[in-house]
Amino acid sequence: MKYLITSALPYANGKLHIGHVAGAYLPADIFVRFLKLNQADVVYICGTDEHGTPISIQADAEGVEPQVIVERYHKLIEDAFKGIDIDFDNFSGTSRPPHYTMSQEFFTALYENKHIHPKDTLQFYCEYDKRFLADRYVEGICPKCGAERARGDQCDACGQIYDTTTLKEPKCKICGNAPVIKATRHWFLHLDGFTDKMKAWIAQKDYWKENVRNFMLNLLEQGLIERSITRDIKWGIPVPLPEAQDKVLYVWFDAPIGYISSTVEWAQRIGQPDRWKDYWHDPETQLIHFIGKDNIIFHALIWPAMLMGQKQTYCLPHDIPANEFMNLEGQKISTSRNWAIWVDEFVQEFDGDYLRWYLATNAPESKDSDFSWKDFQQKVNGELNNVLGNLANRVFAFSQRFFAGKIKAGGNQRGGQSGAGRCLQAGQRD
Ligand code: MF3
Ligand code: ZN
């Protein structure tokens, strides 16, 4: 069995916080360690998600190129992962040239297979800033659930996505004025064309987590529609059509392709450039995406459709474990309100294993969980250091005293050759 394990690509415009770790990284890292201990054939993939309007907004605000922002955060995020021992086989980034090529190829194949069509659309345009306002350049009231401060393309409160112009009381995020509606041409991925395939696929997924499966069943029930996959901004991957000058691919179109381009990069790095194909082009590969709950629609619907619509066969997600959120002292973690514990700061004060322990035992697996410092202190001192630490200490002390510091390694229950019969020195890791 081959496994391709991915964790959601973090946006390269912010630092890593504990909520990210609890949702998409630590669970995957633990699973990968488990698989590797069992000698499974597994590649663990990640990288930074380097396009999208927030990055270009931040670059505008600082008066630098988006690439400057991207490089800064790529480094910060990568270091934060190292600080807590999250160990990817490859950590790439979606502004690297091979990712551009692959994303354009994906678009072209879908286009030639008639899954993508242009449409003249109405979009918010800011007369003050003289520009079209792509998704996150506008904010308003969610047309689905009524929550305030909903983004142009998706609501944080209900997780649903919608047509931007249905947003109520829209405001331009650059200047705060109400935008007008103007015509512009965009290219759409016709998800409706995948309805039958999608239904048949989901029908086999009775082992999925309920939140993900129900989300999908609900969408299929509502009926699949087309989704715009191009944007009027400069920062992004150019749409590979001569008539789409000045348009780039929507960040959510190119981002998941990053899972593939990062695997390509891995294969090159290990000196076996074709090796990625053994995984991605084998329908039997267990492709597993670890994500937070706000990413369900992209991984369970849009991305599988993009894979289904290619000319070559790709493996489809085998499972999509989406976790709930972790709150901080009873309040939702918020980057904009700076209500978060940043991983890079955490590891300057504490051992990364303390965070791993606390997040693993308090994981937001089936409902939101809470990080509280008091609880953290108690769990780390009580469970990890006292109970587990003591157990380890005694085992090593006894083995030193009675068995000259040599313990017979346990056999591998799956019958592999490693382990059985070998001796480990006390304190040595297998
Ligand atoms: N950057 C997105 C987020 O943080 C996740 C992207 S996952 C991928 O919500 F599929 F696009 F890679
Ligand atoms: Zn404006």
Chart the SSEs and their pairings.
Elements: E1 2-7, H1 18-37, E2 41-48, H2 53-62, H3 66-83, E3 90-93, H4 97-112, E4 116-126, E5 131-132, E6 138-141, E7 150-151, E8 168-172, E9 180-190, H5 195-203, H6 210-222, E10 226-228, E11 230-231, E12 248-249, H7 251-254, H8 257-269, H9 275-280, E13 286-292, H10 296-308, E14 317-319, E15 322-323, E16 326-328, H11 343-349, H12 352-361, E17 369-371, H13 373-403, E18 406-408, E19 423-425
Helix pairs in contact: 1-12, 2-3, 4-8, 5-6, 12-13
If you had to describe this structure to a student in words, what would you say it looks like?
The protein has 430 residues and is α/β, with parallel strands linked by helices. Among the domains are: 2-115 and 250-330, 3-Layer(aba) Sandwich (Rossmann fold); 372-430, no CATH class. Helix content is 40%, strand content 20%. It contains 13 helices and 19 strands. It has helices spanning 18-37, 53-62, 66-83, 97-112, 195-203, 210-222, 251-254, 257-269, 275-280, 296-308, 343-349, 352-361, 373-403, and strands spanning 2-7, 41-48, 90-93, 116-126, 131-132, 138-141, 150-151, 168-172, 180-190, 226-228, 230-231, 248-249, 286-292, 317-319, 322-323, 326-328, 369-371, 406-408, 423-425. The strands form six sheets. Strands 1, 2, 3, 13, 14 and 15 form a six-stranded parallel beta sheet that branches. It has a four-stranded antiparallel beta sheet with strand order 5-4-9-10. It has a three-stranded antiparallel beta sheet with strand order 7-6-8, with no helix packed on it. α1 (18-37) crosses α12 (352-361), α2 packs across α3 and α5 (195-203) packs antiparallel against α6. The protein starts with a strand and ends in a 5-residue tail after the last strand. The relative contact order is 0.15. Bound molecules: 2-amino-4-trifluoromethylsulfanyl-butyric acid and zinc ion. 2-amino-4-trifluoromethylsulfanyl-butyric acid is lined by residues 8-11, 49, 255-256, 258, 295, 298.
